[in-house]
């Protein structure tokens, strides 16, 4: 019952090699091995097909979307709108420094939303609220920790960031939620609390 996370269907070549070897997809192989289920986290999932998406949804698996890494490595655009429509829990990740120089969750939110819109030709795809949830509560859910982190409710850990939207680059503010995703960045974070402990105060590490 241990959680399993693995890079999956990140490149077309990975899928082609598996299809040549077994006639199926990388996810189908993992399914045969008994690796999939509610504790399974598929990172990237760029080149999953309809049967893969259906299987991920049916088994309660999770996907971690890494838009910056996928772009930098020219891996492709993950079918995020199809995954969400199927009921798959999609969270956001940054991958690693080798394929993402910023490791910035704000950048991942913005790119996840914009890529979903252009890939689906639907300006309403992955709105700001969905992108923010992907960056917070959906990630906690993927890790099986949504009862402790991921949202600001009584009883959960006080993991909080304060974001300053008063700067000239983020004015005027008509919709704070939209601003968090499309206008703000990590440079707007002034304070950070982890488990209620203030780790960053006025942009200085404590």
Description:
The protein is an alpha/beta fold and 206 residues long. The protein is built from nine helices and eight strands. The protein has helices at residues 12-22, 26-32, 50-58, 67-72, 80-85, 105-120, 128-135, 137-142, 176-182, and strands spanning 4-8, 40-44, 62-65, 89-92, 160-163, 189-194, 197-201, 204-205. The strands form two sheets. A four-stranded parallel beta sheet has the order 1-2-3-4. It has a four-stranded antiparallel beta sheet with strand order 5-6-7-8, with no helix packed on it. Helix 3 (50-58) links the parallel strand 2 and strand 3. The chain is globular and about 55 Å long. The N and C termini lie far apart (38 Å).
Summarize the structure.
It is built from 9 helices and 8 strands. The chain has 206 residues and is α/β, with parallel strands linked by helices.
How many DSSP H or I helices?
A: 9
Per DSSP, what share of the residues sits in E-state strands of 2 or more residues?
15-25%
- The helix fraction, in percent, is 25-40%
Protein structure class: alpha/beta
Terminal-residue CA separation: 38 Å
Strand order of the largest sheet: 1-2-3-4
The coarse overall form would be: globular
Stretches where pLDDT is under 50 for at least 5 consecutive residues are none
- Strands, count: 8
Average residue pLDDT = 97
Question: What is the C-alpha radius of gyration, as a whole number of Å?
Answer: 18 Å
> Largest sheet, if any?
4 strands, parallel
Q: What is the ordering of alpha helices and beta strands? A: EHHEHEHHEHHHEHEEE
């Amino acid at each position: 019952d241990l959680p399993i996370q693995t890079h999956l269907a990140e490149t077309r070549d990975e899928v082609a090699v598996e299809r040549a070897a077994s006639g199926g997809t990388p996810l189908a192989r993992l399914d045969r091995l008994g690796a999939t289920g509610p504790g399974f986290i598929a990172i990237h999932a760029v080149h999953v097909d309809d049967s893969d998406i259906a299987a991920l949804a049916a088994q309660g698996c999770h996907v971690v979307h890494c838009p910056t890494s996928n772009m930098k490595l020219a891996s492709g655009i993950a079918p995020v709108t199809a995954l969400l429509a199927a009921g798959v829990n999609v969270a956001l990740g940054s991958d690693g420094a080798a394929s993402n120089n910023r490791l910035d969750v704000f950048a991942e939110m913005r790119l996840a939303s914009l890529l979903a819109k252009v890939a689906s030709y639907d300006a309403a795809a992955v709105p700001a609220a969905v992108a923010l949830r992907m960056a917070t509560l959906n990630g906690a859910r993927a890790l099986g920790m949504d009862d402790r982190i991921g949202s600001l409710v009584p009883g959960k850990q006080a993991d909080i960031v304060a974001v300053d939207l008063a700067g000239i680059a983020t004015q005027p503010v008509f919709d704070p939620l939209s601003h968090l995703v499309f206008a703000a960045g990590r440079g707007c974070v002034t304070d950070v609390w982890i488990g209620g402990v203030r780790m960053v105060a006025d942009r200085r590490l404590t």
